[in-house]
Write a structure and sequence with these properties.
The complex is a heterotrimer of chains A (195), B (384) and C (257). Chain A has helices spanning 20-33, 80-86, 119-126, 132-143, 149-163, 171-190, and strands at 7-15, 37-42, 52-60, 72-77, 90-99, 113-117, 193-194. With 195 residues, chain A is α/β, with parallel strands linked by helices. Chain A has one domain (7-190): Pyruvate-ferredoxin Oxidoreductase, domain 3 (3-Layer(aba) Sandwich), CATH 3.40.920.10. Chain A has a seven-stranded mixed sheet, sandwiched between helices. In chain A, helix 2 links the parallel strand 4 and strand 5. The longest helix of chain A is centred in the last third of the chain and has 20 residues, at 171-190. Chain A is globular, with a radius of gyration of 16 Å. In chain B, helix 3 packs across helix 4, helix 3 (37-47) packs parallel to helix 8 and helix 5 runs parallel beside helix 6. Chain B is globular and about 75 Å long. The N and C termini of chain B lie far apart (72 Å). In chain C, the strands form two sheets. A seven-stranded mixed sheet of chain C has the order 2-1-3-4-8-7-9, with helices on both faces. A two-stranded antiparallel ribbon of chain C has the order 5-6. The chains are: A alpha/beta (195), B alpha/beta (384), C alpha/beta (257). Chains in contact: A-B, B-C. Strand 9 (237-238) of chain B pairs parallel with strand 2 (69-72) of chain C, so a sheet runs across the interface.
Amino acid sequence: MSGGPMYHEILIAGFGGQGVVLAGNLLASAALAEGREVVWAPSYGPEMRGGPVHCTIIVSSRRIGSPEVSQADSLLIMDAASLQEFSSRMKPDGLLVLNSSLVKAPPSLDSFSLLEVPANEVAEDLGDARVANVIMLGAFLEIRPVVASDSVVDAVRLHAARSVAGRSREHLLDVNREALARGAALARQTGLRGS
Amino acid sequence: MRPSTETISSSSEGANAGAESDTAVAVPRGTRILMRGNEALAQAAIDAGCRAFFGYPITPQNQVPDYFARHMPKVGGVFLQAESEVAAINMVYGAAAAGARVMTASSSPGISLKQEGISYLAQSELPCVIVNIMRGGSGLGNIAPAQADYFQSVKGGGHGDYRTLVLAPWSVQELYGLTREAFEMADRYRNPVLVVGDALLGQMMEPIVVPEEVVDPASLPRKRWATDGAKGRHRNIVNSLYIKASDLEEVNLRINARYEEAAKREVRVAEERLEDAEFALVAYGTAARVAVTATEEAREEGLRVGLLRPISLYPFPAGEIASLADRVKAILVAELSLGQFVEDVRLAVAGRCPVHLLGRSGGVVITPREVVEALRRLVDETRG
Amino acid sequence: MAVQKQESALFHRPQALEPVRMHYCPGCTHGIVHRLVAEVMDELELAERAVGVAPVGCAVFAYNYFTCDMIEAAHGRAPAVATGVKRVRPDLFTFTYQGDGDLASIGIAETIHAAARAENISIVFINNAVYGMTGGQMAPTTLPGMVTSTTPYGREAKAAGNPIRVCELLAALDGPAYLARVAVTDPRRVRESKQGIRKAFQAQLKGLGFALVEVLSTCPTRWGMRPQDALDWLEEHMVPYYPLREFVVSEDLRGST
């Protein structure tokens, strides 16, 4: 089940409703299914609809010590406010995945790598604005395959089956699978900017 | 007028993907699952045969009452949202007096409010489990992870001459395991047992294996001292009032003897790479998680460092720390408070070696890098 | 044929009352109310499944006087303690016995919320308008103008607030199944008080929810009066301010005795 040795810290940030927490959950569930060690942690803040939200995920092939992510290997940023808030929470040679539908890339790239993903446009194109988060995930995993894309699909299936009592969300499976694939394809096409 | 159940349950979105949900019949057992710390400890209580929870909402432990509210009805248990933390701990007092395995949970300011009740529980020799998912303090503070309730936890907390037994897990798996054990300890010593975590441990998800075997509350032995109806026996009285000084002292000595017994039987520590260590980190809970990462990083830099992690904070592993102090050149204590835990470490070390402190406060979590840098300074000083 | 004269007891200590000497001051009405509680417990055969909760205040030693299981609560928390007992053991009968400082001052939140939850417990509430045990301080039910050790010039609303009418306050809630105010000033009223306590206990036995009987009582010691004068003072001053009546009687309780 598990691949080679690895240790990767990810921070996902956006505003409430963008599926930040869900994206983190899917990543964590996929890592669990692959036999990895994983820690998922939410932001601490008062509950507020539409407010800023972020979560961190550590995926590792060995026991995880500190559960706190201070400097992430990869940053997935869904909106402009989050870029401002979290750009300092990335390792100098980290990967920044940016939702270019809502955020302009920072002028100076320093030493990190940048991947721009027009996640909202692609989501609209897929007919479901809610899957912008999964498109971001697909693009990220294409560059840093910390888990297999198939594992994320399995996690979506699990989530869809469980998330709402008495109502199947199986129909969401297809659009999420498609979202992952489109994200991955975009990453291949645009490639990385920066070092 | 009434919000739909869907609206209500959607607020726990974060918890549902990896763990259970309303549609899940029961938590999967014997296999790795993802669970939040707060939910794992609540499931642990149910698995320990606890069928009564009284609490009041406070962040960052809100998944605890939420979990009980959803699951207690399924197992015929009691969940009650009390009007205050004060009321909640006194409901615990009543339920414990009636012989039930019972629990409450809160976070720092709420635990302060419960202290009166905890004092009464201890003096009345009533078992119960209390969970404190600590947040930044003092006062209203914030809702970030902290360990600033150390003194309050291990030195009594409320008024009087009592202690609470205190367990400090460092992972979601341990939150589950130690919460279950806390119920056994509470009954064994007829005393409140406190499980202390923090905002991070409570809210994060980690893989955990929930064991197959659970405690059937019906299988628990009847408590002969309980106020559960004086049928066929003389009445029982649950009380903490002893007007005559010598009477009260007698009770306190009896309770104290149990603490001494606990000190012999319940001290728990874990060690990491101490075999050849020249320098030791001493830390508990989340700070110990940071310290274990720091240990690995420091080893890569050639420093011979190990970690001693107290799991029981009361009884305190004074003997283990003293013998460690005989073996190492210096000790660095890492805690998410400004010099509380370190006091007990220094008492145990009793001058055998230098003890330094790396403390952060107000919800700031120490980074492994900070620990390594502090270690390096310590090494330089010791050699200098 | 010789007439055989059989002896029969006309009056005896209730079985639910321990044969011990009580600590109450001479002329205090706590003893009367304890007896009424015990008589009702006997009549309803409750002693073997009753758990009483004693307060902090003059009745703090009540746990020594009843033969049923007893719990001593922290000051004001008796309704929460009784809630804990009743929730985990609904088969037990649970009552609290509390004074005015305990119930209406420090414990008013626990009282109101137990009532609002329709918690299936019974409360015997002794209102004597003063703190007895601590030395005669103002109670939440101390009357306007009344002299206590902390209102030495008489209670003045502006500085010391107004008295709380507990039954009226709780009657505004949907939870209570039975609320009544009684007094133990003369034999007729004592009999009425017993009826009130009986109904409050029956409310719980029938599963109807929260029941409270407020008993206007005297404190000759802290009022600085002889016992008979205290009874007269109660009639003259307290009864007009705290009217004696039933405030809430659940439909399912009517007709029961």
